[in-house]
Amino acid sequence: MTNLAVTSQSIAVDHIRIVCRKAFDQVRAALAAELPELDAQIIPALASGDRTTIEDYEKRGPKLFIFLERNHGALLKSTAEKRNAVQYEIGNPITAATMTCHQLGASLYAPLRVALYEMENGEAVFEYDRPSSLFGQFHDERVRQVGLYLDRELEAVLLRAAS
C-alpha cells in the first residue's frame, strides 16, 4: 500500500465585489473591449522556450487575456429563473509561468476566475477573489509579488469595464 500524506490549510481570502451601476450587457461588452481572447500562439511559445516571442508578448502584448467564458445564466433556465451570469477565466500564461516555475500549486488559481452577473434591478456586478490573497498561501515572495501585480491589473480592467 502506498503511503499518502494529506494536509489541510485554512487561508484568508479577500473577496471583492464591484457593483457597476450599469446594465449587464454594457459591462460585458466593455470587458470584451478591454480584454482580448487568449492568443493561441503564446502556449506553443512557452512550451518551446521561444524567448523572443515571449519577450515580445511581455513588451507589446496585453497584460491580461480572457481564457474562457462560461455562461452560467444558461444553467439557470432549468430553475425557471432568467438571469444573466458569466464566469470568466482571466489571466496571462506568461505571468502564470512566472509564478508556477516557483510554486506549481499556484496553478490552482491561474487563470483567475471572475464572475459577472445581473442583479434583480438590472445592474451588473463583478465578483472575484483578490489574487494576492490566493497566492499568498504559498509563502513565496516571488509569487506574492506577481499576485500584487495581478491585483492592480485585474482591478484596473474591471473598474474600466464597470464605469
UniProtKB/TrEMBL annotation:
Pfam families registered for this protein in UniProt: DUF302
SUPFAM superfamilies: TT1751-like (SSF103247)
Stretches assigned to the DUF302 domain: 71-131
CDD domains reported in the protein's UniProt record: DUF302
InterPro entries per record: DUF302, TT1751-like_sf
Top-level taxon in the UniProt lineage: Bacteria
Protein known as: DUF302 domain-containing protein
Source organism (scientific name): Gluconacetobacter tumulicola
